[in-house]
Amino acid sequence: MISTSLISAFQTLLGKENVLDSEADRHSYAYDAAVLEPVVPELVLRPTTSEQLGKTVALCFENDLPMTVRGAGTNLSGGTIPTKEKGVVILTNGLNKILEINEQDLYAVVEPGVVTAKFAAEVAKRGLFYPPDPGSQAVSTLGGNVSENAGGLRGLKYGVTKDYVMGINFWNAQGEYVKSGGRTVKCVTGLNISQLMVGSEGTLGVFDQIILKLVPPPVASKAMLAEFDDIDKASQTVAAIIAAKIVPCTLELLDNATINYVEAFTKAGLPTDAAAILLIEVDGGHEALVEDDAAKVLDICKKEGARRVVLAKDAAEKNKLWEARRNALPALARARPTTVLEDATVPRSQIPAMIRAINKIAEKYRLQIGTFGHAGDGNLHPTILTDRRDKEEFHRVELAVDEIFDVALSLGGTLSGEHGIGLAKAKWLEKETTRATIIYSRTIKKAVDPKYLLNPGKVIGG
């Protein structure tokens, strides 16, 4: 138990309203979006200034309190579930200021609790563009995005969060301030600590300020929906578009189950009898080039067996298509009490093989799996619709997940394209890497966090 004197010290530092110790409050931060058992923290702390954040970390270090840093809790791999030992959750949603948007040098400085979509909107008001767009962007925070190296629909062309991180200032495990990276396009001062922190899932430091690269927005775009009677033809089309050296802004796939759930949820006018659809957008700096790329993509779709390709007539139709795609997970989640969203990612040329394997696994284990995802960059989201209370069925789910990962790795893929490892996938990590890789990672962890207080047990275990 945390002593009353230490609770009082936190209250003096943060204010009583920002030290949450009631049972109801603590239970609210016992879980994230992963299908894992909740763990109730002993205390929830909400600093609202950089100074408070640093002193909070230092107090936790001095008193051997494990720390789980949490933004919006949209994490899908258990990375923001507290440790089972005594520990606290440090909320960063009170550190939510955009400190600078520099239109001349094309960067922004933000606190970790800034909501992704709000930041992108503020940047857009200034005629600039922040491309990373995770599906949770309406609620997820930039600190969480960086911690997980979040991706999104535009990852195919524009890259993921790591491609926009120029610098990170953070508090180390002892509560000391570390600066890395900077505001310049080129920066090779010291070790590349910023990129070490990207995707570290809260295990190496507590973010204070993040410097993000901005880019000019595209001036033109074209979106289309391609319908297929055969999902294999749809997946072959993805490979064909990439092989033709065309890089769409987005290239998304939805299978029949997903189409039907999304249509019932959004009434977007999707073809519910199609085996699969591709949602494709090309963009660029010149209208003529975009028109040319769109025509090439349309021809490839037809050549590969699309029964129909519909071009969005205007921005409203384009937005309707992408709104439907962004609703894929919420629509599927309405079907059964439990939704197991996975993150199998393979080289783009292996998309057809991966989709065939997912369908065979669904049949083998008698499960309903809706598959959608960022097919253009090989990142699929096979989503198993189940009920965790049915022990026999959920055992089949666990076997299916094992097999999905085995297939992804056999195809040269990875355990996670954008959801992280956290608790949920740590047991498979050695399958993709080596024992030496894990030991090397733990050596780094031990060096910077000797008491193992920063999100212990996540990613590399130990």
Verbal overview:
The chain is of the alpha+beta class and 462 residues long. The protein folds into 4 domains: 4-91, Uridine Diphospho-n-acetylenolpyruvylglucosamine Reductase, domain 2, CATH 3.30.43.10; 98-213, Uridine Diphospho-n-acetylenolpyruvylglucosamine Reductase, domain 3; 220-410, 3-Layer(aba) Sandwich (Vanillyl-alcohol Oxidase, Chain A, domain 3), CATH 3.40.462.10; 425-462. The chain has 16 helices and 16 strands. The chain has helices at residues 4-14, 23-28, 50-62, 116-125, 142-148, 155-158, 193-197, 231-243, 256-266, 287-303, 315-326, 328-333, 351-364, 391-410, 429-432, 435-448; strands at 19-20, 43-45, 67-70, 88-91, 98-102, 107-110, 165-171, 177-181, 206-213, 220-228, 250-255, 276-284, 308-311, 338-341, 368-374, 379-386. The chain has a 7-stranded antiparallel β-sheet, with helices on both faces. A 5-stranded antiparallel β-sheet has the order 5-6-9-7-8. Strands 1-2-4-3 form a 4-stranded mixed β-sheet. Helix 13 (351-364) packs antiparallel against helix 14 (391-410). The longest helix is centred in the last third of the chain and has 20 residues, at 391-410.
